[in-house]
Amino acid sequence: MIHTSLALGDKVELSRLKFNTNKTYNNETVYVSLIQDIKEDSLIISAPVENGKIIPLEIGTAYLLSIYSKGGLFKCRAVVSNRYKKNNLHFVDLEIKSPMRKHQRRQFYRLECALTFHFSNEENETYYKGIIIDISGGGLRFTSKEQIKVGSIINCTLDINNIETKRLELKGKVILSQLVDYQVIKYETRIMFQDISTENREAIIKFIFDEQRKRRKRRKGL
Predict the structure, then answer these.
(1) How confident is the chain (222 residues) per 10-residue block, as mean pLDDT?
(2) What is the distance between the alpha carbons of residues 57 and 158, in angstroms, rounded to a whole number?
């Protein structure tokens, strides 16, 4: 059942599944983790962390896994079969319960990058620094030292370089914010753009295309 594209260190999102009266599954809380070991029909992941605390996933609980690998996005169902601690680190065994199916990416292509930007919460005008790790015409994902409430709206200021530097003022809704490294307190946050103008969206898409072209040229040694 384990797809050959998976590798150690791949990111895993776990959405808790709750069986309802209509005999379908509902997604609830989402946790983020990394693959630590791969077996024939199971995965070992690091225990998710939230607000600096280990999340004790209950044995027997079902989750929908979204696995981000170099081969694409894969999804499957899994059940927590064991939890344990080794060398002061916490791990979770996940027994895979359905075939891993490859899913199409979102409508907009996401470009992996490392762009410094600043953001503020609408409820707090203080600006914080973050690092954008991927961006598309529909949203972006970044790391920072701050965890942001899911569902809140943040204002983002970033500079992109095409022919000339262009400053973008963007608004986004937080759809995920999880601690990914509790040793240095680093949170990963994903936002979906809200009320983005056609001009700003086209500027981002053009920036992505230009960056792809530059990277292809570098790979070819041009």
Answers:
(1) 83 76 51 90 90 86 88 89 92 93 70 92 85 92 90 92 83 88 82 91 88 81 62
(2) 37
